Amino acid sequence: MKNKRICITGGLGFLGQHLVKKFKAKGYKHIFIADIDKYDLRDINDVKKMYRQIKPDVVVHLAAKVGGIGANREHPGEFFYENLMMGVQLIDQARINKIDKFVALGTICCYPKFTPVPFREDNVWNGYPEETNAPYGLAKKMLLVQAQAYRQQYGFNAIFLMPVNLYGPGDNFDPSSSHVIPALIKKFVDAMGGKAVILRRMNPTATKPEKRNRLERPNRPVTVWGTGKATREFLYVEDCAEGIVLATERYNKPEPVNIGAGFEISIKDLVKMIAKIMKYNGQIKWDKSKPDGQPRRMLDTSRARKEFGFNAKTSFEKGLQQMILWYLNESNA
């Protein structure tokens, strides 16, 4: 595998950057990135050009239009069309070009709204997805159908992975499109008066006594969507990259595979954890007029463990601390 030409769509994105590093760290020498600056994967002519120019043996398809509940509610048509067209055209052209393997990245949003917890891959067809992100989830789910149909008819080796919500250094902090963890971190930063203020509060020994008193003043309130009762599972981005590399190397079956950490935390407890790490001392308000999204999310990760030896290694609190410190110290956002 290490001598194969591997094309990663969306390789400049959040997960893509970590995946490229992971492949290179494992000795892969021929890694190519197909990103929006060179190839608009919604356009069939650009898809054909990508295959013609890169000549990949393996494609790992990460490129996607993604966002949180708000973005999904505001742009359901775009989320459906763009994700569907990218994936369907890439897989079909991969078959035509006779590539060795296609690794399609799905999403936990593929699952029905009321899936029994923990989510098992065999339950993915037992109901309709949660309404706020159904167009996105269904568009991704069609790639599973296509991968299985192409395997059956053409003997085409395509696999389908369903990662849980990701977080970590390099995440998207744009409030209009970010997911829950970066969106919350950004809210706390704004309420506390900026990154420098938080860093001083997190490291009080480096602050003069007179300034320390000012830092202890109550912060502005933070408003969070929903009731806080919904639960989510989060996977550190570097762990996800490891899982994708292992699946690329070792998994060649039609059944979809969960990529996750195998735990759940309520949004209320998540907010408390972020507030504690960032030394926030203000009031947290819950806007119950806004949706919670899917009631519960947690994956059964036994298939990934059995089929290609994947286990998430990063504890959630440690990963969250690393993400927050990256955002405060290194991010330009």
Walk me through what this model shows.
With 333 residues, this protein is an alpha/beta fold. The chain has a domain at 6-164 and 236-262 and 298-312: NAD(P)-binding Rossmann-like Domain (Rossmann fold, 3-Layer(aba) Sandwich), CATH 3.40.50. It has helices at 14-25, 44-54, 69-74, 76-96, 134-154, 180-192, 195-202, 209-215, 237-250, 267-278, 302-308, 316-329, and strands at 6-9, 31-34, 58-61, 101-105, 158-163, 165-167, 222-225, 231-232, 234-236, 257-259, 265-266, 284-287. The strands form four sheets. It has a six-stranded parallel β-sheet with strand order 2-1-3-4-5-10, sandwiched between helices. The longest helix is centred in the first third of the chain and has 21 residues, at 76-96.
Query: What structural class results from the helix and strand content?
Result: alpha/beta
H-E string = EHEHEHHEHEEHHHEEEHEEHEHH
Helix residue percentage: 40-55%
Numbering strands along the chain, what is their spatial order in the largest sheet?
2-1-3-4-5-10
Backbone CA Rg:
21 Å
Proper CATH architecture of one domain: 3-Layer(aba) Sandwich
So what's the overall shape? Answer: globular
Q: Determine the CATH superfamily of one domain.
A: NAD(P)-binding Rossmann-like Domain
Largest sheet: 6 strands, parallel
Could you list the spans in which at least 5 consecutive residues all have pLDDT below 50? none
CATH class of one domain: Alpha Beta
Distance between the termini: 37 Å
